[in-house]
Amino acid sequence: MKSQNENTIVFEEDFYNSSITELLEKLEKLKASSKSKILLDFSRTINFDTLSVAIFLHFEKDNGITLILSDTIKKEIAEFKKNIAFDEKRNDEISGIDSLVIKVEDFVSQMKSFIILTADVFHYSFRALFNREGRKEGSVYQQMLLMGNNAVPIIFLLSFLIGLILSLQSAAQLRQFGANIYLVDLIVIGMILEMGPIIAAVIVAGRSGSAIAAEISTMKITEELDALQVMALNPLKYVVAPKMLAMTVCLPMLTIIANMVGIFGGFIVGVLYLGLSPDIFINRAVSVMTLYYWYQSMLKSVLFSWLIVLIGAHFGFNVKGGAEGVGKAATSSVVAAIFAVIITDAFLSLIFYFEF
Amino acid sequence: MTTENIIEIKNLVTKFDDRVILDDISLEIERGEIFVILGSSGGGKTTLLKHIIGLLKPFSGEISVLGQDILKMELEDFEGILKKIGVLFQGGALLNSMAVWENVAMSLEHHTKLPAATIRNIVKQKLSLVNLKHAYWLFPSELSGGMKKRVALARAIAMDPEILFFDEPSAGLDPITAADLDDLILELQKKLGITLVVVTHELESIKRIADRILYLQKGKNIFCGTLDEAKALGNEEIDRFFGWNKKTKNN
Ligand SMILES: Nc1ncnc2c1ncn2[C@@H]1O[C@H](COP(=O)(O)OP(=O)(O)O)[C@@H](O)[C@H]1O
Ligand SMILES: [Mg+2]
Asked: Which range marks the domain in which residue A53 is found?
């Protein structure tokens, strides 16, 4: 490009997109320095590309620019205009009450499909107890290793710390009343009924619930689930049932570990801080720890295990979109599973507290 | 401008572990031609393409694109070259989290200073070129395989590249769409003088569009030249590929 005088630029035969940036910068400077119209002379230009045509169109609409175009350009612009003459507005934008209605409807349909999924999963998992057909050899065992065994260290550490801290905070209060011995009741009942099942469930939801959602959603978007289905392998039977069986066994076991380790944390505080003798602590603990509490603890953790698998599977099967959808499914499944676990826990605790 | 070599490859050797994938490939691609890479599956066509666009580093050899040696280049300079080429991947490789128009607009938004309205216009123009006006707001998961390919094509040509690479563009397309795609390719080449490097198995489209072909057999360059020369060569595998023996028997 050549500037004849200040406000006129004359262009050569070629004007490709590589010159656009330079031209735009030049125009900006010109506009800043003078107020009169700028003349762009493209009358000789015959070689150009689509980006150039688009920018000619932009100049055409600019009031500060006078444009002289060659016939070839004019023809291409007409063509270009024909091509872009369609409405690109999205017409499905929804607002106000409608969007609320849609959200509610969406939630209801999600709940419906969750209930159906629950029924199906129980059906197939129960059958899978007695019939190994339609699932991979050793898949339950493998899932147990993955979801149970590998979670032991972290559950060990966290429940020990929580038992320790819970006891320490309460011990300071109990000491004021000389009620040191009740620390044992507090930590035993607190761990077995509440903290143990919850700690185990929250950690497993974070580790395995998200993994289940990610695995199933990936299988869905890569059409692996469809492939299983047309090979007459039911995805619920092949993928979900082994996880369900494994989790039903593992989470209660992890809960037992969390309970015992948490109580051990209390033991440390009782003996070292409150000066209880180990004998007294253990005797008291054994007498407080009735079988009935253990039933409650196990009942809770079995229910939690089902919730975690079912919610993970639900979000996995309902994935939308591609890679991003997988991430969303994993996150939502963890949030929903922890939410469901705590709600269920509160509900069960209330029932047991008042009924029995 | 006609005899300028836009891509030059010298003695290219590729190994994965100890397996030789490309064995001493040398070739030159001229500006403005349609260069077709052929060969049986697993012959190394995709690998060769990946070398030229810088996704893979070869074991040895030289590659120059647009007159510059891309193997001895700083990353920043190579990005300058990348802005002048477009690639259509085998599976489309659209970004799933973005709508169709955003996929097409992406490089325009990041690599040019064009006004937003102009970018929108360009996107619309490219989409109507590939016949996908109605897909403007759709997401990749809502498209069929052929539509994805066409969106990917729109994305590849968004910046008006000087070289366009296609990896099996018509695989998975119906014959009509595939023929339309060929028309489009020919039109692009004629109108914009784009150089095209195409990997394809479609005989029809090879016969229609190819200026020159390269035939790779197990990583070896067994032929490079025009179709007529290939026919005259009388190589057994190439003849089988094009069905040339059969024809002579039948006639
Ligand atoms: N990343 C990789 N690692 C190891 N081997 C590879 C890799 N990519 C391709 N190959 C091998 O290189 C050969 C050529 O592959 P490719 O270029 O994809 O063939 P095609 O001609 O079908 O496109 C094949 O044998 C393939 O197994
Ligand atoms: Mg390939």
From this structure: 2-88
